[in-house]
Design goal:
With 113 residues, this protein is mainly beta. The protein contains 1 helix and 10 strands. The longest helix is centred in the first third of the chain and has 6 residues.
Length: 113
């Protein structure tokens, strides 16, 4: 049974930094290693947005976070992280890191102005 748990969210002031972590369990190492992982976010009243992906050493970012967010992946620990710097109130959302069709509960980030 694949499970995902996102953590690290919280309340931070604009301009601050935070690091999100996504821990998976029940995933096979070879499958996790070869899977493109990404972080999504969903803000109230807005569509869900894909903010970053990683596959091997290749990363991609949405324009809204490029230069501020960094995604990383630790295959042996089955974790995906998202370092977020220079946060703005527009980054406020629930953040998710799905594994194929499995989604975790997400972690709430709130950025105050």
């Amino acid at each position: 049974q694949v499970r995902l748990v996102e953590s690290g969210g919280g309340l931070v002031q604009a301009g601050g930094s935070l690091r999100l972590s996504c821990k998976t369990s029940g995933t096979i190492l070879s499958v996790f290693t070869s899977t493109t992982m990404g972080w999504y976010r969903h803000a109230p009243g807005k569509q869900r947005e894909l903010v970053a992906t990683i596959r091997g050493s290749t990363t991609n970012y949405a324009a809204s976070v490029k230069g501020r967010f960094t995604i990383s992946k630790d295959n042996t620990k089955r974790t995906v992280s998202l370092q977020m710097n220079s946060l703005t109130p527009e980054d406020t959302a629930v953040y998710y890191c799905p594994f194929h069709d499995r989604w975790g509960p997400g972690t709430q980030l709130t950025v105050s102005s």
